[in-house]
Amino acid sequence: MHLFQFSLDDRNLFLISIGVFIAQIAFSSITPFLPSLLIELGLESNISFWSSLIFSIHAVTFGIMAPVWGAISDRYGKKPMMARAGLGMGVVYFLMAASKNHIQLLMLRALNGALSGYIPAAITLVASTSSPDRLSHNLGMVNAASAVGAITGPMIGGLTAKLFGVRGSLAFTGFLLTIAGVLPYVTRIKEAPRSKKAEDSIKDSIIKTFKNRQLTLVFMTGLLTQAALMAILPTLSLVMRKMAPENAELYTGMVFSIIGISTAIASPFIGKMTGIPLTSLYRWSLAGSSLLTALQGLAGSVASLLILRFIFGFFNAAMTISGNVLIAKVGGRGRQGSSFGVYNGIMSIGLVFGSTLGGIMGDRFGLAYSFFGSACLFLAAYLLSFFVKEPVREDSGAV
């Protein structure tokens, strides 16, 4: 059947979602425990500094390599990129489990960032093999799988760290990533034929991506939204300590995870909202995110903050899915690897910028101002999104 050969059928979507779920568990399971590993490695001073350095170096090297891997995926396929990321990071996590000091850990985190990109490769594979009429639905399902993995990961990480220690948890994470890496080939996930547009060099592919004005506008809104999402992270745990000092750790975990719950619930439904113009959905999600983030800064209790964060997850789902669909459609077929690669590289800049800005505003003006700064970034993204044009409707036939 034509549909079976060229479009992302339900089997393909299910298998890719499983891979994303496993990979997201791996990514989110060990991150909270890296500072503990530094202590275990014998570091006695400047632990906060080295913790932030180890977190940020991953984003820096990922940002540098993401456009390169994206362009390579246009030339050689998305499945090889999923395998490269999964197996490469799996090996790095095994090496981190055996690291002897914080310098080795820092270097391995840098290598891990350079090799990472499993979920971006999976999203690109979905985008490149989905028919236009199923694109939003399929990206919504993958987003839901990622959200569920992000919720599950810290629980599994906490359990494995308790049973096997932090090093054992790192080794287990390496095992999960290895499974995710071989999954596309073991299960024979199908991939669309490579387009002739991918014959450009890697450098030319990246340059042509930036020359797409509409795509660049989507990148800029994405940069602002990523910075907005990250701006509250440096102060969120401090806000919880102020609100509920006796149960700060418990409530901090709840506040972080509750967005994942609502995002997972909303994503499949958002993906089916094809009757709403894509740019309208994107704009309203940005406007809602701005309002809800400002209200979080005014929250006076744990309960009110949890409710606002839960509602925010619905707008976060709409923002993520509509943004990914815009990139897939505006970037054009045959260049989606480069489009998503450059986008993910830019997102790493937003990560560093947002967390730095949020920390500065929280220290200088008060904890609530990191939320207000985040809300302003969402608002700026909302205003910028009015320059993004609705993509031309494509033929709904198979890809």
Automatic annotation (TrEMBL):
Transmembrane segments annotated in the record for this chain: 12-35, 47-69, 105-127, 169-187, 215-238, 250-269, 281-299, 305-328, 340-361, 367-388
Domain Major facilitator superfamily (MFS) profile: residue ranges: 12-393
GO cellular component: plasma membrane
Membrane disposition: Multi-pass membrane protein
GO MF entries: transmembrane transporter activity
Top-rank taxon, per record: Bacteria
Keyword Transmembrane helix carried by entry: yes
Alphabetized InterPro entries for the sequence: MFS, MFS_dom, MFS_trans_sf, Tet-R_TetA/multi-R_MdtG-like
Coiled-coil intervals, chain numbering: none
Keyword terms: Cell membrane, Membrane, Transmembrane, Transmembrane helix, Transport
Localization, UniProt: Cell membrane
Major site of localization recorded for this protein: membrane
Xref: Pfam families: MFS_1
Protein name as it appears in the record: DHA1 family multidrug resistance protein-like MFS transporter
